[in-house]
Here is the input.
Amino acid sequence: MDSDAKNYEVAYILSPTLGEQEVLAYVAKLSALIEESGGTIRRTEQPKKLKLAYEIKKQENAYFAWTTFRMQPERIAEIEKKLKSHSELLRFLVVEEEIEKRKPFIRSIGVRTAVGSAAKAPIRETREPIAHGTAAPEDKRLDLEALDKKLEEILGK
Here is the structure.
């Protein structure tokens, strides 16, 4: 297999009228089809029977599964053409897998953000670093008495 082969995923929905043995046989049939077309199976998910969000070909339930594989891009059209002729399939979709590069999540202690905005809000340092042996600036110090007076004023006590 050449180095220009890419990773793909085929997600598919099978008719609920199939028996469990027939569903497993179809998974093997799909894997064989991919391998005959020059692909290499990477992973196969066992089908699970689910209730569909909306009817597909008058079916409310169906088996859902997916298979990941590696293949030459020019062979994908051949696979899709063969899959369209399978009567067991209600729907299918072949997509190229993109390797997602995630940045590590770093949790900042003491910083609270609104739900959903954590990824958008930049983390800001609230204190300036203080060199060893120097005192903190006077305007940055917390005066508890002044804070208590301000709280009483706000709360109306």
Q: What stands out?
A: The chain is about 25% helix and 30% strand. The CA atoms of residues 20 and 145 lie 73 Å apart. The mean pLDDT is 81. The first strand starts at residue 6 and ends at 14.
